[in-house]
Design brief:
heterodimer; A: 88 residues; mainly alpha; two-stranded antiparallel sheet; 3 helices; 2 strands; elongated; B: 589 residues; Sodium/glucose cotransporter; 22 helices; globular
Chain lengths: 88, 589
């Protein structure tokens, strides 16, 4: 029983870390990737009056961050429930 | 009605609102005083966090900074929002589960050491005072420009208002007041932005106007802006003049610093549940993003308007520049503040505004146009405040912007004062010096500490140590290199022990502090010129917190590996904070 509880705990933590890593990769790519490291390359693409790299640095990354947190919170609630560690 | 009377009425009404809310939501227990009894709805908490976070710097200075830095200003936009992703995924839910009141409390508990807690208290107090001094200064400037009272009177009024609601209301009063302040500041920020966006492009949304064509038929705003500024010798607006590695590390230091700032972290202790801590970070960022996605549009439009005001015709032709005598009213109004200066260097009776720091362009302009240097100096801090005047908006909008600026400064100041008072009464007195103190006396001590902190903040606001601007780099750098790694490792590693954490914090702190002092010379004369050639790997002092953080991680891991692991009950604690269930029970001490 104890073992089962522990392995459930480990699986929950693993699922949590996986979701977290996905979020942080997206977080890194839109800001440091598109907005900074690849900005010159992306700036050669124009859309809706913006150079794409500039848009990511001043607009796109912020929109992505907001969506990212809500998606993370929603997915985490699901994981909490799945492993039965959610709050009452 | 006179502008000044109108401003008095609008600012007065906003003050009455804040004080009314403070009286309605007075704190009576330490729980309410420090963390609002943990009963704040996530949306309300998100709004309060947004107001807490967006300071006078965000409201007054940021758009102006971006206007003059162009792409280079992106470090503030990404840096001051991206930290919330780190908060939501890495820190907030776990700290909420831990269920105590303050950051030093977590560090002291997780690293089973009062010394660790003490290091955290020192970092926290330093970071918070740095910030609060800047806020009080902001209050003073707004008062003196719009209400035309002297800075000291402005400061005393501002201190009085913060005193009433921070000292009486504690976190509970502050939280609900901040909700009101958020509404005031976001309304005040977006109204002029919408007006100006509509004037320039015909779009109401500044975020869309940013990428639209101008109504005068000269093409896309950003393309036109690039063209206008390069003709005057400036770097293209959509291109920065900082190196990529520097932009990278400044963004990193600001992001991680945001996630490590105690007055931001403590907001997530106030929500009822762990899952609320996650969504609350989302709401906070959504409310912040409303201002942060408007700001770059405001910056670009302000730069365009300013340049067009002065450069009325083709560059290089005598008639292309504005005549001094026909300069607009708003310029005349700002001249007495010293924040806008004009000097006719070539005595042609016209204003030349261009980049005389660009040697090639300056030489060409002198030889061919007869320009003797840039004649107009505009302090970037006035861009947002002067924006409604530049665009010729009605007086009530100008009065509203004044109220918004004050709301932004007061809300941040109050949050910081509370963090300082909690660190002194809860962490230092109850945690270390007098563990037997009663709840009543602790609450009293908290109020006295807050009152005392307000006086120091007011003093610093009136006599700004010449280095307030430099110290901002300090606050973020220290938060990034000391508190953030210690908290993160405390949650995600069971192996990091007391020795590792303390050594890590000290190494991060001392390295970052040393680097900044070396180039910026806080308290002492700088020891080296603050130029890219001297920087470590080309990273400026603003971005060095990122390196400090990495050093902190390496040190903590290395030391923990060679010393004994944390005791079993601490490892159990780490297990426990990783699981949301049972957060309700974790409140009690």
């Amino acid at each position: 029983m104890q073992d089962q509880k522990e392995s459930m705990g480990a699986a929950y933590w693993k699922a949590n870390l996986k979701l977290m890593m996905i979020c942080l990769i997206i977080w890194f790519v839109v800001s440091y990737g598109f907005g900074i490291l690849l900005v010159d390359t992306l700036n050669s693409i124009e859309f809706a009056g913006f150079k794409l790299g500039f848009w990511f640095a001043q607009q796109g990354s912020i929109y992505t961050f907001v969506i990212l947190i809500f998606v993370y919170a929603h997915q985490m609630n699901k994981i909490d429930r799945k492993f039965n560690v959610h709050e009452e | 009605m006179e502008l000044q009377t109108l401003t008095y009425i609008i600012v007065g009404l906003s003050f009455a609102l804040y004080i009314g809310i403070a009286i309605w939501s007075r704190a009576s227990t330490t729980g309410e005083f420090y963390v609002a009894g943990k009963g704040v709805h996530p949306i309300a908490n998100g709004m309060a966090t947004a107001a807490d976070w967006m300071s006078a710097a965000s409201f007054i200075s940021m758009a102006g900074l971006i206007a003059f830095l162009g792409y280079g200003g992106s470090v503030y936009l990404m840096g001051w929002t991206g930290g919330y992703v780190l908060l939501a995924t890495l820190l907030a839910p776990y700290l909420r589960k831990y269920g105590k009141f303050t950051v030093p409390e977590f560090i002291g508990g997780r690293y089973y050491s009062k010394s660790a807690s003490l290091v955290a208290i020192i970092c926290l107090i330093f970071i918070s005072f740095t910030y609060v001094a800047g806020q009080m200064r902001g209050v003073g400037i707004v008062f003196s420009r719009f209400l035309e009272v002297d800075i000291l009177t402005g400061l005393i009024v501002g201190m009085g208002v913060v005193f009433v609601y921070a000292v009486l209301g504690g976190m509970k009063g502050i939280t609900y007041t901040q909700v009101a302040q958020y509404c005031v500041l976001i309304f005040a920020y977006t109204v002029p932005a919408v007006f100006i966006a509509f004037q320039l492009t015909g779009h109401f949304m500044p975020q869309l106007a940013f990428g639209s064509t101008l109504l005068d038929g000269s093409g896309f705003m950003l393309e036109r802006l690039n063209q206008v500024v390069t003709e005057l010798g400036f770097t293209e607006y959509t291109r920065g003049n900082k190196s990529t590695i520097d932009v990278f590390f400044i963004t990193l230091a600001l992001m991680v610093g945001t996630a490590g700032l105690p007055h931001v972290i403590v907001r997530f202790f106030t929500v009822p549940k762990v899952r609320d801590a996650r969504t609350s970070a989302g709401w906070a960022l959504l409310f912040i993003a409303l201002l942060y996605t408007t700001a770059p549009a405001v910056g670009a439009m302000a730069r365009y308007n300013l340049t067009q005001t002065v450069q009325i015709g083709a560059v290089g032709t005598p008639a292309g520049n504005l005549e001094v005598e026909s300069r607009p009213e708003w310029m005349k109004r700002w001249e007495p503040t010293g924040l806008l200066k004009f000097e006719d260097k070539n005595n042609d009776g016209r204003i030349q505004y261009y980049n005389d720091k660009n040697p090639e362009f300056a030489k060409m302009a002198q030889d061919e146009y007869g320009w003797n240097g840039n004649e107009l100096k505009v302090d970037r801090d006035i861009m947002v405040l002067a924006n409604p005047e530049i665009a010729g908006l009605p007086d009530w909008v100008i009065a509203l912007v004044a109220a918004g600026g004050i709301a932004a400064a007061l809300s941040t100041a109050a949050g910081l004062l509370l963090v300082i008072s909690a660190a002194i009464s809860h962490d230092l007195l109850k945690g270390i010096l007098m563990p037997d103190i009663s709840e009543r006396s602790e609450l009293m001590a908290g109020r006295i500490a807050a009152a005392f902190a307000i006086c120091i903040a007011g003093y610093l606001g009136y006599n700004p140590p010449g280095f307030v601007a430099q110290v901002v780099a300090f606050a973020f750098g220290l938060a990034a290199s000391s508190l953030f790694p210690a908290i993160l490792m405390g949650i995600f590693s069971k192996r990091i022990n007391r020795e590792g954490a303390i050594a890590g914090m000290l190494v991060g702190l001392i390295f970052t502090m040393g680097y900044i002092i070396n180039f910026k010379g806080v308290f002492i004369e700088p020891m080296a010129a603050n130029i890219p050639e001297n920087w470590f790997m080309g990273i400026s002092p603003e971005g060095i917190g990122g390196i400090g953080m990495i050093l902190n991680f390496i040190t903590a891991f290395a030391i923990s590996r060679v010393t004994s692991p944390p005791p079993a009950e601490v490892q159990q604690l780490v297990e426990d904070i990783r699981i949301p269930r049972g957060s309700g029970a974790a409140h009690d001490h």
